[in-house]
Amino acid sequence: MENITFNMSELHQYGTAYFDYLALRKHFFVDTLGWDIPHNDIYEMDQYDNPLAYYSLVLHDGKVIGGARGMPTTSSWGDYTYMLRDAVQGKLAEIPKSIMGDEIRTPKVWECTRLVISDDLESAEDRQKCLALVVDGLARTASKEGAAELIALMRPPFMRALRQLGYNANLIGKPYQNREDGRKYGVLSMSAKPVTRIQPAERPTAKVLPIHQDLELRQTA
Would you say the C-alpha torsion 127, 17, 186, 94 has a positive or negative sign? Predict the structure, then answer.
């Protein structure tokens, strides 16, 4: 497995990887979970896929098997900023305005969205490795651009997985139950640099379930 990171001005350097990531998102979020989000027969793409976004993808034998999107909380593109701030402002009906309290707008904080890991990865070890590469790539990119913290809307149990990857992760705000899938989601905050990587000898590695069971990053567009 290998990690690649890029923004829209650089995506041409990686062949079809960006579009393969959009296709992976469509397969999972639309075809598997049935979310009502913008898509066509091949790709899922929304208003946050704009020139302000950065991407961290994982390839295996040239195939995209995982990825996530990030952007600074200072972002503004047309009528939208970043997902959580737009939710607080009431622009995204499925996410409550109270999801994270006050708006965050600082170059020191980035938002992570659209995390997905391919169901082709059947072993917990492979999923854990893919997750680590996705998260590390995005955190490294954010840190390079001056960020010290990342926030994301996801299932609270994911906090443990982030901590086992070495990141200082915490829940901010109160989780809510999504009306579409009945699951709880909350805003997690994590350091942009790992504090320490927990070794298996010190603590058993958390079982990383398929993304639809334990690693979902919920976004409403």
Answer: negative
What's the CA gap between 10 and 142, in Å, rounded?
16
Distance of CA 16 to the CA centre of its chain: 20
| Residue of 153, 146, 150 whose CA lies nearest to 194 | 150
Domain residue spans of the chain: 67-214
For the stretch 107-151, pLDDT in tens is 999 999 999 999 999 899 999 999 999 999 999 999 999 999 999
Asked whether 170 and 112 are in contact (CB, 8 A), the reply is no
Distance between CA atoms of residues 149 and 191, nearest Å:
5
Check residue 129 and give left, alpha or beta (phi > 0: left; psi -120 to 50: alpha): alpha
This prediction has a pTM of 0.86
**Separation between Cα atoms, residue 112 and residue 138, nearest integer Å:** 8
- CATH for 67-214? 3.40.630.30
Reading the block at residue 211, the tokens are 């993304």
Q: What is the pLDDT, as a whole number, of residue 197?
A: 52
b/e 173-182 (16+ beta carbons within 10 angstroms → b): bebbebeeee
